[in-house]
Amino acid sequence: IISGPLDDRSDLYTTIDAFIPMLDEWSAAQIAAESKRKGHNIDLVTLRGCISSLVCSGIVRELPGGKFSRIHPRPKAAPQVKRKEEDYVTTKPEAARPEPRRPTEILGQLASRVSQIAADAKKLGADIEAAAIEMEDQMKATSEEIEALRQLRSILNVIREK
After folding, report:
1. At what angle are helices 11-19 and 28-37 packed, to 10 degrees?
2. 70 phi and psi, to 5 degrees?
């Protein structure tokens, strides 16, 4: 926590201050997401500490619900940091987008999936063949039992006729 005014703010405070919108109200998590989107990796504890110091210094105000907004206009005693118009955040941060994959990565992943599907198809074919053999064995056993019953019936018919 900074004890005096932020006249000689560090780069971290300046960076975090740039992510806090003037026209909108953001939570610390939204500010952290915006900083990550812009390429800064600031942990949430450090970010909250810096925001707290900025609130104590009167540069940022804390609103109900844990939301923060930059005070506009900025105090004239504080040094002005020149920023471009696109540096000011006026919209909700977008979800972090993953980096686009290279075509070779995409093809490699697809080839891996095709190999897995082929292996699964081979296993399925082997399972079907095993089931067919088992059914054939059962049908053969049933045929043999039917043949035995026919022979028994013919023997019984012969005995009955005598």
Report:
1. 110
2. -75, 145
Secondary structure (DSSP) of 7-50: TT--HHHHHHHHHS-SSS-EEHHHHHHHHHHTT----HHHHHHH
Rounded to 5 degrees, what are φ and ψ at 38? -85, 0
Q: What is the mean pLDDT of residues 115-122?
A: 92
pTM above 0.70, yes or no: no
Give the residue from 75, 10, 78, 27 showing the smallest Cα distance to 2: 10
For residue 72, what pLDDT band results from cuts at 50, 70 and 90? low
* 79-89: pLDDT as tens digits: 566 666 666 65
